[in-house]
């Protein structure tokens, strides 16, 4: 009985909400380092399609992933398209910074435990391990992302090796 509520309690906190093809997603604020406007991305050969390449951020090379492509959404660049720089924890406990291309940034919301529900069971064929849960904010449902799992660990390691 208490095991069902324990994960939800730890999910309470502040989330940066971003938009991908008219849907809102939440990223834990503690994972977000900064938000920057789009800039020239240098391609890296032989990476998965959602890995756009790398950028130079104040002398540091940061890999960039297009979340829209990763989630099979339309990836059209607009005026509000930007890069959210996040700190991703690798399985080896090492942390790396990565850029995530999103359509736009909405706001920072503070979520209480009772506003977050577990991810629904979509069936065996749909992988929901990268979802923390679903939040109800102002009558809308926002999907909370486990940013450490959104980008597959092997992709992060391949990027880290390439950079």
Which sequence of strands runs across the widest sheet? 8-1-2-11-10-9
- Oligomeric state of shown chains: single chain
Mass-distribution shape = globular
Radius of gyration: 16 Å
The percent range for strand residues is: 35-45%
CATH topology: OB fold (Dihydrolipoamide Acetyltransferase, E2P)
Number of domains: 1
The helix content is: 10-25%
Largest sheet geometry: 6 strands, mixed
Report the order of strands and helices.
Answer: HEEEEEHEEEEEEHH
Structural class determined from secondary elements? alpha+beta
How many beta-strand segments? 11
Q: Per CATH, which architecture?
A: Beta Barrel
Q: What name goes with the CATH superfamily?
A: CheA-289, Domain 4
Spans with pLDDT under 50 lasting ≥5 residues? Answer: 1-9
| Overall pLDDT score | 85
Number of H- or I-type helical stretches: 4
Which CATH top level class fits?
Mainly Beta
Whole-Å distance between the termini? 45 Å
């Amino acid at each position: 009985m208490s095991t069902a509520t324990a994960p939800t309690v730890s999910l309470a906190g502040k989330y940066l909400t971003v938009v991908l093809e008219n849907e809102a997603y939440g990223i834990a604020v503690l994972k977000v380092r900064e938000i920057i406007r789009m800039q020239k991305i240098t391609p890296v050969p032989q990476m998965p399609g959602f890995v756009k390449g790398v950028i130079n951020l104040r002398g540091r090379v940061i890999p960039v992933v297009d979340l829209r492509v990763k989630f099979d959404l339309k990836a059209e660049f607009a005026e509000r398209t930007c890069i959210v720089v996040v700190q991703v924890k690798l399985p080896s406990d090492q942390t790396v910074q990565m850029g995530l291309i999103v359509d736009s940034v909405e706001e920072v919301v503070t979520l209480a435990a009772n506003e977050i529900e577990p991810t629904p069971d979509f069936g065996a064929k749909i992988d929901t391990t990268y979802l923390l849960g679903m939040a109800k904010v102002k009558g809308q449902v926002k999907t909370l992302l486990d940013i450490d799992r959104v980008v597959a660990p092997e992709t992060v390691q391949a990027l880290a090796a390439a950079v």
